Amino acid sequence: MSFTRFQSFQKYTRYVLSAILLLVIMASGCRNTSFIQPGDTLEVAYEKALALYEDEKWDEAAGAFSAVLTLGRGSIVAQDAQFYLAEANYKNKRYLVAASEYERFTLLYPDSPRRETADLNIARCYYELSPRYKLDQTYTVQAIENFNIFLSRYPSSEYREEAIASIDALREKLAQKIYSAADFYRRTQRYEAAVLTYGEVIDQYPETAWAEQSLVEQMESYILYADNSVSDRQRERYQKALDVYDTYLQLFPRGESRTRIEELFDEAEAAIASFSSNTSTASR
Questions:
Q1: Is the pTM of this model over 0.85?
Q2: Which of 32, 85, 223, 267 has the fewest CB atoms lying closer than 10 Å?
């Protein structure tokens, strides 16, 4: 390459690089104007925050609405800013933060027409935070409580069915957690703890899918408990198994586990009959 051509190439390269740099600066400048700047009025700051929200830039929108609230907590735009702050966090799946911001909204603006949405979304946040059944269920309980509050406050809401279905799903999870604990006790031969814990499922969550199976496992656990008890306590515990059978027939007369429960009934009844036979023989 000649020296002249090399100089021309250098000038062209500098021109291209300068053009690229200018475009970057211009783009950066355009981008920056969409964010709140020092000196922006409260109204301008709010409009910028709303534009970010409408562009689904949830992180930036949440930060912008926080800035708006810092600038004018008691202003005319504060109510909308507080609501959109909660909404931006909710849509960004920051559920714990969103729940807190919705709660703040309901405390500050209890008569707002958006109160129903805020109350519903508080419950939805805790629903989303509810973990799988093996983990701590604090958020599950909070979700149920908030859905119940929602149903009490808005009995004719168009979201009534959603709230009921959500409560049902959450209660299934709580029932499964207790059932899992009872099953663990049974498998580790802690039969007394097992029958009591299966009883919790039946007493607290009778409408769930875990109630019928809990009755079956409770009856089997009573039989195993009796089998492994001292002779003076066996008859009493076999009888408790038969009591569970009666409860099963009352709650699930056409239950899917009817065949199994009948087998357990025969086993417990035969064990009690053997006691009667032994007692009769001993008295002769």
A1: no
A2: 32
